[in-house]
Recover the amino acids of this structure.
């Protein structure tokens, strides 16, 4: 199976792996897609947090226009609108928070924590002491809408 055949088959079957909300059957609560998850060792270190901020900046550059809202743990985990100011504040938060503080945030194209978003950038980086004691890793899940975007990228590569 070549790449085109894979994405054609994926597109044809992806709704078989989509589950809708019981109360509102127009809203997906679980949906198949491509997700990249990065696990980082020692992510509480300032240089690693700087790299998380750089990854977030790169995501914002390519997909920031898709993000509508999300939360930051340091601001009470309440949903807020995504904007250029929120982006800058979030980068500053990542880069300046202490090594003994966790970094946690999630920005979504659908600012609802119970429903599925097509685009999402989230981070959970535990406190340095927690990572040293428990050996956990930082998790950076990233998701994008796959079907049309992947097809466009692959078709450009073939030209």
């Amino acid at each position: 199976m070549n790449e085109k055949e894979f994405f054609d088959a994926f597109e044809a079957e992806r709704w078989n792996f989509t589950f809708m909300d019981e109360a509102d059957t127009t809203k997906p609560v679980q949906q198949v897609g491509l997700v990249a998850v990065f696990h980082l060792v020692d992510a509480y270190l300032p240089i690693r947090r700087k790299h998380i901020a750089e990854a977030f900046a790169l995501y914002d550059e390519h997909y920031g226009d898709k993000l509508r809202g999300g939360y930051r743990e340091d601001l009470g985990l309440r949903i807020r609108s995504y904007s250029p100011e929120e982006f800058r504040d979030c980068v500053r938060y990542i880069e300046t928070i202490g090594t003994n503080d966790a970094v946690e945030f999630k920005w979504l194209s659908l600012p609802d924590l119970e429903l599925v978003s097509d685009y999402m950038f989230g981070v959970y980086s535990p406190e340095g002491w927690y990572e040293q004691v428990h050996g956990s890793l930082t998790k950076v899940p990233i998701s994008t809408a796959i079907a049309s975007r992947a097809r466009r990228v692959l078709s450009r590569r073939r030209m």
Observations:
- The mean pLDDT is 83.
